[in-house]
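Exercise (ungraded).
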Amino acid sequence: MESGFTALLPETALATGAVLGLLLGSWLPLRHQWPVRLMAVLACLFGLAAVFAAPPLPHPVFGGSYAVDVATQTGRVVVLGGTLLVILLSAESVRSHPRESEFHVLVQLGALGTLVLLGATDLSLLVAGYLLASIPLYALAGFRRDPVGTEAALKYYLLGALFGVVMIAGATLLYGVGRSTGYAVLARTLPTAPPGVVAVAAVALLAGLLFKAGAVPTQFWIPDVTRGADAAVAALVTTLPKVGGLVALFRLVDGVFPADGGWPVLFAVLATAAMTLGNLAALNQPTVRGLLAYSTISQVGYLLLAVTVAVESEFAGPALLYYLLAYAVTNLGAFAMVCRFPHAETPRDYRGLARWRPGAAVVLLVCLLGLVGTPPTAVFLGKLRVFLAAVDGGYGWLAVVAVVNTVISLFYYLRWLVPVFLPAVSVRDGGPVPAGGRAALGGGIAASVSLLAGIGAGLFLPLLNGPVLP
Amino acid sequence: MLSLVVFLPLAVAAALAPLPSTVSPRVFTVGWVCAAATDALLVLVVWLVHGASAGLTFEQRVPWIPGAGVGYHVGVDGLSLPLVGVTSVLFLACAVHSVHRTRGVKGFVLLFLFLQTCCLGLFTALDLILFFVYFDLSIVGMYFVIAGWGGGNAGPSALKFFLYTFLGSLALLLGFLGLYLAAEPHTFDIVELARATPLSGRGVFGALVLGAIGAGLLIKTPVFPLHTWMPPAHTDAPAVGSVILAGVLLKMGTYGFVRIAMPLLPRAWNEYAWLVVLLGVVSVLYGALVAFAQEDFKRMVAYTSVNHMGYVILALGSVGLAVGSAEQARVLAVTGAVTQMVSHGLLTGVLFLLAGALHARGGTHAMGQYSGLAGPAPVFAGVMAVTVFASFGIPGFSGFVAEFQILAGALATAPLAAALALPGILVTAALLLRALHRICLGERPPIPPRPTGASHDVTDLRANELTAMLPLLGAALLIGTLPRWLLAPIESGAVHLVGAIG
């Protein structure tokens, strides 16, 4: 054992927070469960502190089954920070809810699963992380117990179970031909294993991770969950699991799968499909949630560009990590405004926002233009880095596809953004009706981080350079 | 110092932003005028200090995102300084023109201050990403100007503008990435890239990068057949929006050629110069002929922009045709091109301000609705007459200096193209004179046109409108009669550029 539990402090903190929260929650009166929320916040803050206090990178821990490297650390920051934002966003809908402690426990467990997923360098741990990152989210999707939420949860669960089984089958096959579940051994043995079996097994394994990332062709659950679940839950499931799924994909493609397996072409096709399908479907969405749902699918497409050139370009790893950070915070900011105005369903309902709530309008302006990739927001720099990696890796045509898709995406983001600056429908109408102010605070934080991470990228971009352990 | 010039408008915008929109609109408009005037004075100081220096002055270089090879690098030279000047003058003119505005003033003023920072920033940027950031943000700003304060079919026109130029900007970005990757060590710094010209020995890749950058800039310029976003955008934009769009934003395209495409990709530029010349000639003729067929005054001016920008493209293309020879002619062509950018900014600015004045009185831009305005509005007619003559290049104004240099320069290296482009001037002269004739001369109609909201009596230009136009015309006259103060810095920049492309 190279290192003990100190390397896993963030994960330990989340697990402790969840277990203690569960115990505590059963002793607290139904209407006063705020200590559980406080504990969740403390667990995340403690985890973040542990990340920043960590010793230099990278090092494998627990017999090489878990990697603490630049990808894990960045992923931890994104997931823990994102969880904090989600807790802030959910305050309006779950505060004083009789099942408030369950909500926060599930959020922490889901975040923990995501952390395991993104750090795993062993197939069995990867599968465990997949299950831990999925099952709490199924429950969260149906948290409101209304018909649409239940339907979303059921669809999410069925697809998740299906891809989970496929993924386990893939992991088993790889274990069979590679004689190990550890990535380090697999990287040596797979090139000499029967290529057909390796290809089938690897694709099966990828299916589960693509499901977590919400990429085509496993994207069917995203629109249902985004429209059916609570807005804060929608923010969570469209943002954080992607971090786990994509980092895990990157590890496998970068260091485990045989280099001559044609993976770049597969991912180039997947990226094109995700971008194009997501964008085209988003064009006609009547509701802002539907629009965001498909926008997240298209964003996965841009992220997959980095996975495509994982081997070919040295820029791919840092680009993926930076884009994940930028995307997570910008997407959460957009969802924060959905939480803030729960009754505004269509873009039209946002008319008069700029007049009556200029702060919220600025948040939407920053986040939506950010998602387009307008400088100087963080997603712009993320796209720049990802496109750079693609061109550098010899996939210039993929960058061109991404550019065309970016232009298409402008249509629907503007469809939401333009009404924000139009006058309200009637004079007495004071724009969309807001819920409590915590979502506004969350949106403000997200938009500021999105801007500052773009302008001040010089300060922390070098931190993202470093080897990603297989 | 340059950073102060660039960010002063943004700082003023930030200071004005917290004020509630219920305070008197004058607070915003006067604040805008003061900011624009201060900025213009600062630019004057920069100009006086720069003088006829050969290289970059006021250079400032700070690491921004060193991990990505991006730096905050600014500076001015003979090619950018004239455009910085014309930008500050045009924004001042717009501020003065808008001083009596009452509808949605706060957002309007803030947007224009933001736009001014973007435009000045772009012309001073010496880093590709910095350039791109300003390029993209100017598109966003102008989109909101057209969509929010435009008339007619503003929403779709603004979207069309946004989509076209956004596509162009992303093509530009791909080209920049190609340059970055080719350079060793990787950098986005324009000065370093111009020194290294990393793509010189790489035929196909260089051509692809030039194609991406060229496409992005040609959309912005705009050149036939990529110009179709422009007429609707101009028609539906507010008058001062059109001034900035035509006077400053279009220059971003042509400036991009002299700053980026030519010095950074000299080999590829020389190789494909014939294509550039061809596009230039077609734009000159096409712009002139289509403008001739327009009924809408603003749309007509928009198409003359295609024509005028075509000369710039023609000149820049001709420079690449004769490598290593005809040095003097090529310097002349570049000088003419930059002068044309300045001249077009000033004169088209006045034309669009006149169009705005026309619309404020008659409620329409249709030339058929007006007649005999010289009677009730002699000052308007006088200004319009002078501008029209200046605009088609009568000696004594800046247009003549510019077009003469362009054609004289191009004649040496691309005689056929220059000869083909010559009739463009004739057509432009005819169409502008015809517009003058239709609007200002002739019988006054018995009842003046009065669509909704227009006053019954056609009034003459107001003081603030005149104050906005006269300095622009004055500058054009000054360039036309005493051009040395402008040509000296441009020539030093042009010599440098021609030297760089071989």
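Further reading is listed at the end of the chapter. For now, observe: The first helix of chain A runs from residue 9 to 27. Strands of chain A lie at 59-61, 66-68.
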